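Q: Sequence in, structure out?
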Amino acid sequence: MHANKNILFISFLLASLASCATSPTGRKQLSLISDQDAAQMGTQSFRQIQKQTPLDKDKDDNAYAECIVHALAGATGKPRGGGKWDVAVFKQDKTVNAFALPGGHVSVYTGIFPVAKTPGELAAVLGHEMGHVQAGHGAERISDQTAAQVGVGLAAILAGIDQSSGKGQAAMAALGLGTQVGVLLPFSRAQESEADVLGMQYMAEAGFDPHEALDLWRNMMKANNGAPPEILSDHPSDENRLQDLQARLPENMQRYQAAKRRGRTPDCIPPG
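A: Exactly. Output:
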């Protein structure tokens, strides 16, 4: 009787929480929190990162990153959920990374400059990261993880697992791993592929040659030795990523040519 009540409660919770959104590419998304809430959370996280990570005070580095984000912002429009695009450059020379958070906060680590060697290549990286924001991936990830946690609890109840016992805890761990590999990572790979699509579109519309997105990921392949297989990674394999981007070159070359005709020719000067 107790188990039945738990099942009914969890089923009701899932039904009441579940709502669908649609991404910019038309993909269905689970949405349990609003874009505005995600933006507030992104702003809080960004402020915390700024406190914990040393900022790069080099004027040329900052002007370069700001120039590229400003150009891309002309293609993306305002950040989804509110805010405005801003950028911080962090002094992390050995970290090849960049990311954008809901609320419009773009972070660039100095370690990415030797890999994203040209303005177009860095625009491909930052367009991809800004694509995550515009597609609402932050809110979607939180929603997916919440639903997965509830689902694991429901599966345990249906299987009659005593979660307080040693065997029960081992079974719960196995259920959690199955959820991670079978649900959360594939969803994340879909988000990464979608950000690739949007990133190439944004860079082309901002006046950067989309061919440089391919150059960027070839550079990433060289710098990415020892990466996990795609099935256990939250990113598509490098080969699949290149194939997908190659297939989208024609449409984005049209966007690029149209941007140049409108006078969009970013003049962002790499540091050094």
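The longest strand covers residues 86-90.
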